[in-house]
Amino acid sequence: MTGGAVGVGFIGTGMISDTYLQNLTSFPDIRVVILGDIDTARAAAQAATHGIPESGTPDDVLAHPDVELVVNLTIPAAHVPVSLSAIAAGKHVWSEKPIGVERAAARELLAQADAAGLRVGIAPDTVLGPGLQTARRAIARGDIGTPLSAQTSMQYIGPDIFHPNPEFLFARGAGPLIDMGPYYISALVSVFGPVARVAAVGGRGRETRTVQVGERAGTEFPVEVPTLVQAIAQFEQGATSQSVFSFDSPLARTGVVEITGTEGTMVIPDPNTFGGEVRITRAPTRATAGSEPAWEVVAPVGIEAGRGLGVLDMARAIRAGVPHIATGELGYHVFDTLLSLEEAVSSGAFVEVQSTVGEIPLVPEDRDPFAATL
Questions:
Q1: Does 367 reside within a domain?
Q2: Which residues share a beta bridge with 93?
Q3: Which residue, 245, 265, 298, sits at the end of a domain?
Q4: Can you tell me the distance from the alpha carbon of 104 to that of 101, in angstroms, rounded to the nearest whole number?
Q5: Is residue 318 assigned to a domain?
Q6: What are phi and psi of 236, to 5 degrees?
Q7: Sign of the C-alpha dihedral, residues 249, 253, 254, 258?
Q8: What is the domain extent for residue 166?
Q9: How far apart (Å, rounded) are the C-alpha atoms in residues 199 and 342?
Q10: Helices 103-116 & 328-347 angle (0-180, nearest 10)
Q11: Which end of the chain is more exposed for a tag (fewer CB within 10 A), N or C?
Q12: Residue 246 · residue 184 · CB < 8 Å
């Protein structure tokens, strides 16, 4: 393929595929040609729902001549094997987060893609949305002075209250840290640059959980990972952050990202979304001390879309021969950081993060996902 819309195939058609399909089928620069799943009936149902011409098995997706880029929406334990199969078939691959469940396999994936001259992209692509992009531009302008620190919170009672098959979200490669952490750590890395070292404490509120919805309601399953992590990170450029990641909190407090600089504090929109309001408050004066903070709203710049924006960015970058933004290297560094936090929970000591990542480019302000550009 040398021009025109990029042909895309899906492997994995579970819950998250709906939002990807709703968006990708609305982007003129993307052509979804086939959906694949080990449950071929589920793939066929999704194809019928979203008007996709073909469906079948994962192998059917890999063999399809019009598929240039595979969207990998499998469970975390299958991310690397499926992504490797896409690379072996000569396809670029976009994978849901995390990149994998262990470092060595994730590094091997990136090495094989590089050797084959193919691209890997890793969710989340929320970092490409107008919310975080507007915040980054405001910080770059100096709206809060020099950014010094951040505070984030992602806490609620857990996904077993709504997911009909929640076991994988409490298994290795998930939990609140590695399932939800990528949104928050990706946002922080976008603002502060790569992480140098981390420390954390945490544990499990319960050793077992119970499926609460769907046909399997009442089924008990084990919890394999920490479900509460309180984390500290120090970034290479000197800034620090503190974060809470919890599936054990009856009080829900999610989407909290506050960046404090020398001249003000910025509230960034929920990093699990693409839009939202950016707000800034300044240090109080003697006259205003003790009063409610005054807020400045930074008008968002850019067209809001949704999940699949990273696939679109990859597709356009492939055609243009330029780097895409949510790279495998960024996804690996975020994953490496999260695993380091998990290890810090076990050891109680600071853990040096071994990987790094280059500067993350901004999205052009005039980028229109719904324009035909290829």
A1: no
A2: 70, 120
A3: 298
A4: 9
A5: no
A6: -55, -35
A7: negative
A8: 127-298
A9: 9
A10: 170
A11: N
A12: no
Neighbours of 220 (CB within 10 A): 8
Query: For strand 92-95 and strand 253-261, is the pairing parallel, antiparallel, or unpaired?
Result: unpaired
Report in angstroms the alpha-carbon separations of 331 from 117, 121, 164.
18, 8, 27
Residue 55's CATH number: 3.40.50.720
User: pTM for the complete prediction?
Assistant: 0.90
- For residue 307, being part of any structural domain is answered with no
Residue 209 and residue 95 share a domain: no
**374 residues of the chain, pLDDT tens digit each:** 568 999 999 999 999 999 999 999 999 999 999 999 999 999 999 999 999 999 999 999 999 999 999 999 999 999 999 999 999 999 999 999 999 999 999 999 999 999 999 999 999 999 999 999 999 999 999 999 999 999 999 999 999 999 999 999 999 889 999 999 999 999 999 999 999 999 999 999 999 999 999 999 999 999 999 999 999 999 999 999 999 999 999 999 999 999 999 999 999 999 999 999 999 999 877 767 777 888 999 988 999 999 999 999 999 999 999 999 999 999 999 999 999 999 999 887 778 899 999 999 999 999 999 999 99
313 belongs to a structural domain: no
